[in-house]
Design a protein that fits this description.
Elements lengths: L13 E7 L5 H14 L4 E5 L4 H12 L5 H25 L3 E5 L2 H10 L4 H6 L9 E6 L2 H11 L18 H22 L3 E4 L4 H15 L8
Parallel strand pairs: 1-3, 1-4, 2-3, 4-5
Helix pairs in contact: 1-8, 2-3, 4-7
Amino acid sequence: MENASATSRNYSGRLIAVEGLDGSGKSTQIYLIKRWLEQQGLRVFFSKWNSSILVKSATSKGKNRTLLTPTTFSLIHATDFADRYERQLVPLLRAGYIVLCDRYVYTAFARDTVRGCPPDWVRGIYDFAATPDIVFFLKADLETSLHRIVQNRTQLKYFEAGMDLKLSSDIQESFRIFQSRILEQYLAMSTEFDFTLIDANRLIEEQQSVLRRIIAARIDLDDYRS
């Protein structure tokens, strides 16, 4: 993905993405960043993966009925991203907002490749997307991620465990195999896309402190006050 950063594309806003395995704590951390920036009176917008109203119901129906092939799954998520990108992300970047994304195109690069989609093809369908100014990758041990999920829910979700790939009849073992393969993809991308790695095994407060310091060092926050 040979894309320019958000700033070099003449957007006055800044784009920050957070990536990580399911259970890594990335959603908690990006939410805390959002609240921190809002409390300073900054212009902030938050967008979550697979949240387009236009596409979400179709995705849910396909998942519930296990009708989606890896290619169809990939295309639906790309449509979701494109809709949010054109309707929300780009206009707000142009308007001078700090845009926070809970997952970005790298989620597709990792998941879709593990599900068997050709890597070049997956990247090609997202080639319109700007490269974020900062990409945080929250790196947590697999067992830590799994423990966090089962603490908060009665069971793992079918697709987050990669059950559609028939890796194991045991859902927790399938999760370990699937997520370990995704982790390999993320780590392979980390240098290519200049991910900022965060130790997600640490306490929430410790991680948050590190994230805030990095953001404050790389972005002049005073430029984004309402």
